[in-house]
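Ligand-bound model needed. adenosine-5'-triphosphate.
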Amino acid sequence: QDIVLSVNNLTIGYSSGQEVLRACRDVSFEVVSGETLGIVGESGSGKSSLLMALARLLPPNGEIVGGSVSLSGVGDLFELSSEQMRRVRGSTIGYVPQQPMSAFNPTMKVGRQVAEPLKIHNRLSYRESLPRVLQALNGMGLSDATRVANAFPHELSGGMLQRAMLAQATITNPRILLADEPTSALDVTVQRQIIELLKEVSLEHNLSTIIVSHDLEVVSRIADKILVMYGGRMEEHGPRDNVLQDPKHPYSHALLASRLTADQERKAPLPALTGFPLDLRGVDREAGCPFRSRCSRVIPICEVEFPRTTSGATEFACHNPMGSS
Ligand code: ATP
Ligand code: MG
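Prediction:
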């Protein structure tokens, strides 16, 4: 299968005042055509930063500190001018930010916003693009597409806006869709419907997808591969079933353990984990594993050295993985 996206040793930093924070360190993975990669990890693990970097939409205080991202047929994204990148975004790459409600312009009808990529990339007028707008809205499960197209954002529900945002991101038939928490603000039924739709759309158009979620349940429904992040580091990466059934990293294991508790407890934040989420400030000055202070399997070397990646059924970065004595 052909590789659509290849991420190599990507490191992302934010500066605020004197402080520099590494939101992602040495992240590497590939996405092949038609494949869905699910990225999971708790709040602050660097998921959105990673996706924003891939779309080259980091905020002004964010920067690519190192690494490269290669998109098939385009080349290294970090070598493109911002004008070239603007053309790639919306034609070859579809991007849905974490807060799509606020991404909509409140004063513009939804249909015109969904049509925007066609205006920019194909120079189509709204009238010309309308059939594709309606088709795209329909394809995302909005059967009342004409009404949706003519509505203003505040007239639609969160689920409808999320679907409209996905319609906009896929209207140009991109090779890869980057979707940041596409369902987190929605109720469970709507979440499931949207996940099913994304799966269908990706199969139908051979679309590769990277879907970010803090919810392993959502990710395990749709993803072919799973990438587990913690503290800006890749802790584990591999085929879904291998990660779910035989996680090697204690953090993956803890995430799964929290999922497998009783249904009502599932909403509780990571009951299997103790301690506090990592404070990333200063982390780049430290060499150890970011998970060590909460890890049940910590050994002395974890304090001083981030583990090399081990390849087995999954790739994982741990000095003392699950199943070893
Ligand atoms: P969530 O699940 O809450 O969306 P996330 O995994 O998407 O979290 P990021 O938003 O990528 O995590 O944040 C990674 C780290 O970078 C966090 O420590 C966060 O506080 C920090 N960060 C994010 N944006 C900025 C910014 N503009 N300036 C400084 N630090 C930032
Ligand atoms: Mg995020």
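Residues 102-171 form one domain.
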